[in-house]
Amino acid sequence: MTSTGAGGRIRMTTDDTPLTDLDRVFNGFSVDDLDAAEAFYRDVLGVPVERDDEPMGLLQLRLGNRQVLVYPKGEAHRPASYTVLNFPTDDVLRTVRALADRGVEFLRYDGMPQDDLGVVTSGEGPPIAWFADPAGNVHSVIELGPEPGGGDDSINETAGVGPGPG
Asked: Strands across the sheet with 138-143, in order?
């Protein structure tokens, strides 16, 4: 089944796709050192991590009802050129302080209106701060506030928009 969206674009609904299990779609990214990644995500960020050492070793980050695959590439790894994960929060300043207390260093970008903590709090878009994992992949902490209607598993449309990397 198709429908016409904004600008006359035709969109395919799930009835028309051969991709039958869209509720279980997941993404992934690479790291150079799986042990360092596991320690960072589990011990520093507090993310539930599952490790599967067969056949090549993988991590699964459990982010609510989503999973993100982290796989080793060793010396072939190159950090992503975009923000890989956006971690929503109701209070970005409190979250940044708590992560900084755990040793997370927040990134600074030339020309960005960042405060002493590295948080962009002026300009367009929600308050946001960026940090890198041990492999150099950039992630953000972004203040989205509660979802309208109390739902917690839809993505705020501003999450991937605004200044910053990628």
From this structure: 83-89, 138-143, 128-132
For residue 127, give the CATH number of its domain: 3.10.180.10
- Per the structure, the count of domains in the chain is 1
In sequence order, what are the beta bridge partners of 130? Answer: 140
Is 19 within a domain? Answer: no
Q: Is 123 within a domain?
A: yes
Q: What is the DSSP letter of 114?
A: B
From 94, 163, 81, select the one nearest 125 (Cα to Cα). Answer: 163
First to last CA, the chain: 33
> Taking all residues of the chain, what is their mean pLDDT, rounded to a whole number?
83
Burial class for 54, CB neighbours closer than 10 Å (0-12, 13-18, 19+): exposed
Q: How many CB atoms lie within 10 A of CB 41?
A: 24
Instruction: Give the model's pLDDT for residue 149.
Output: 56
Query: How much is the average pLDDT of 90-98?
Result: 96
d(CA 113, CA 116) in angstroms, rounded, equals: 10
Residue 6 lies in a domain: no
Q: Above 80 in pLDDT, residue 128?
A: yes
Residue 15 belongs to some domain of the structure: no
Strand bridging mode 27-31 / 66-72: parallel
What backbone torsions phi and psi does residue 83 show, to the nearest 5 degrees? -75, 120
Q: Is the pLDDT of residue 92 over 90?
A: yes
